[in-house]
Amino acid sequence: KKYVLKENNDIYDEFYCSLYDDLVYDPNKNKFEMDEIKYNIKPNKSSKILDIGSGGGHHVNLFNKEGYKVEGLDKSKFMVDYAKKRYNKCNFKHGDATDAMVYPSNSFTTITCLYFTIYYIKNKKQFLQNCYDWLKPGGYLVIHLVNRDKFDPILNSADPLQLVSAQRHAKSRITNSLVKFKDFQYKANFNLDKTNNLAEFDETFKDDTTGHIRQNKHKLHMETQKHILSIAKNIGFILHGKIDMVATQYQYQYLYVLYKPE
Asked: CB 74: neighbour CB atoms within 10 A?
């Protein structure tokens, strides 16, 4: 087809999963997150960890290599299959984190939800309630949240100044990415609609030979950090810590560590 549009759950098909790492994989960021989680939570060999939105499986693999019991959950079957193939010693499950029946109560000591995963979830109250129920008393939830007005939406693969944030040197916020692959061109653009707490991340793939175009429209539910944290607090979570990701070149992005009281 000359033009294909993919939205929401349909985006993560075989084609996109095969390219996903080329667009966003960042081993330095992953190691930073892993080290910070270990430092702030101090898991041990009896810990049981769940990574929600496990994608390509890299965080699950890092935890597994350290000897922790860990499982990845992703709602894209293609992503789960891709992760299983790549890391066949790790456990991955296909499922939706807003479905309370995916796991029994008190299953995990730590749950992680990293790299924008929470913004794909519309019903954050249900999601956070599930996390609370799935955690054992004394357990931790680590979520990635951003300052939606200031974070840098340029993809790593499109940022030539990775060591110095390009945003600092721009007169206005840069919201588009451009990457040249071997046989197609990739463009992405981020638009924020603050009034409705929505954002759209549009990606376009144009084939060099045929000129055929595939477009992905990611719909993100981007409430303020304060609003999301207030939902967590009302459910019963206690804020244990906030980790600034600026050291790994992710400005205005944070890991929040939430605690389920014993």
From this structure: 27
Bridge partners (DSSP) of residue 108 are 135
The answer to whether the CB of 96 falls within 8 A of the CB of 120 is no
What are the sequence ranges of the domains in the chain?
Answer: 9-148+225-259, 149-221
What DSSP element (H or E) covers 28?
A: helix 27-41
Question: Could you tell me which CATH class the domain 9-148+225-259 is placed in?
Answer: alpha beta
- Using DSSP's 3-state secondary structure scheme, residue 95 falls into coil
DSSP state of 164: S
pLDDT tens, position by position, 38-48: 999 999 989 99
Tokens coding 225: 């950090």
Please give the Cα distance from 177 to 172 (Å, whole number): 15
Give dist(CA 95, CA 98) in Å, integer. 9
Distance CA 29, CA 35 (A): 10
Comparing 154 with 133, the larger pLDDT belongs to 133
Per the rule left: phi > 0, alpha: psi between -120 and 50, beta: everything else, 142 is: beta
DSSP, res 54: -
Residues 184-219 pLDDT 10s: 999 999 999 999 999 999 999 999 999 999 999 999
Tens digit of each residue's pLDDT (9 = 90 or more) over 59-96: 999 999 999 999 999 999 999 999 999 999 999 999 99
Residue 249 has a pLDDT of: 86
Element (H, E) at 201: strand 198-207
d(CA 54, CA 116): 11
Side by side, the strands of the sheet bearing 3-7 are: 3-7, 213-221, 198-207, 184-193, 176-180
